[in-house]
Design brief:
Layout (H helix, E strand, L loop, with lengths): L6 H13 L5 E2 L4 E3 L4 E3 L16 E2 H8 L1 H8 L7 E6 L5 H8 L5 E7 L3 H13 L7 E5 L14 E5 L8 H11 L7 E7 L4 H10 L5 E10 L8 E2 L2 E2 L1 E3 L9 H4 L2 E9 L9 H5 L14
Parallel strand pairs: 5-6, 5-8, 6-7, 8-9
Antiparallel strand pairs: 1-4, 2-3, 9-14, 10-13, 10-14, 11-12
């Protein structure tokens, strides 16, 4: 039987048409990632953890998911030995689960979020409903800034919409610094909706040198009202990051995300990130090839 949309879901989906309102979250029973056909449910956290805002699928998470193959292709190849990936603040785990589902047999994925029972159970259920092999994916609860021994070390760390709370910037960087492997290709990919606020993102940038992080790439990319990329010649619309934009309103910021790539300057023989040499976007629209 087809799912009947609730009145709230119908209203939310109509806001863009009625008021040129660009949504930044999806709320509802299930979310189908159209490019891949995978299905996700957002966690229903306990009331004491509502401030985590984990019970929605956010625009930055979907943007990262839509471009997850492009992220992987820059760092991994089918010929290399096993590579490890961590998604922090995973919530529904969409980007990480998509990566685990794609045809990269040598990648293992760890999905992590705050140790709330409902969040961790939802991550495990999303793994199961999308037929992800147990051997390639695991779920671990972690509080940023605390011991990361259980997590381990990773070649790729990614996170979406994790910069909105300035009080969490320092412990977030502590975790990032401890889990990123010190190798030439290891990278951190962060995506933040500009609804976060430019000065809030700037405060995060200011503490990066304390953890020996360097910005390889930082651009603003546009999304449309359906959370898909506005594309020109197959590429998302992009512009340089700016701390302030004259005349920008909150409704304008809802249409953009910030795409950021970080590396650790202490890594030996650190390789240049491709886009850092050209100043151009390093990826185009993903073509999803789902593993059976």
């Amino acid at each position: 039987m087809a799912k009947i949309a609730t009145s709230i879901e119908i209203f939310s989906s109509s806001l863009h048409t009625l008021y040129s309102h660009t949504p930044i979250t999806f709320t509802g029973n299930t979310f189908i990632h159209k490019p891949s056909g995978l299905t996700f449910v957002a966690p229903n956290t306990s009331p004491s953890n509502w401030e985590l805002h984990a019970s929605s699928i956010w625009i930055a998470s979907l943007f990262l998911a839509n471009h997850i193959r492009d992220v992987a292709s820059l760092l991994f190849s089918p010929q290399q030995s096993t590579s490890s990936v961590l998604e922090l603040g995973a919530a529904s785990g969409m980007p990480g689960i998509l990566l685990a589902k794609l045809s990269y047999p040598n990648i293992t994925v760890t999905l992590s979020d705050y140790p709330d029972d409902a969040i961790l159970a939802c991550l495990k259920e999303n793994i199961k409903r999308n037929n992800i092999p147990d051997a390639s994916t695991r779920v671990i609860g972690h509080t940023w800034g605390l011991d990361t021994t259980q997590l381990g070390l990773f070649d790729l760390v990614m996170a979406a919409d994790t910069l909105w709370n300035p009080d969490q910037h320092f412990p977030f960087c502590q975790t990032l610094s401890r889990v990123l492997r010190r190798t030439s290709k290891a990278r951190i990919f962060l995506v933040a909706g500009l609804h976060t606020g430019r000065w809030t993102i700037h405060r995060f940038l200011e503490i990066l040198p304390q953890f020996h992080f360097e910005i390889d790439l930082m651009v603003e990319r546009k999304v449309d009202s359906t959370f898909d990329s506005d594309a020109v010649d197959g590429r998302p619309m992009a512009r340089d990051w700016m701390l302030e934009r004259e005349g920008e309103e909150e409704s304008d910021r809802r249409k953009w995300i910030v795409w950021m790539v970080l590396s650790n300057v202490c890594s030996p023989q650190r390789q240049s990130y491709p886009a850092a040499q050209t100043g151009q976007p390093a990826f185009v629209e993903s073509n999803f090839i789902i593993a059976n």
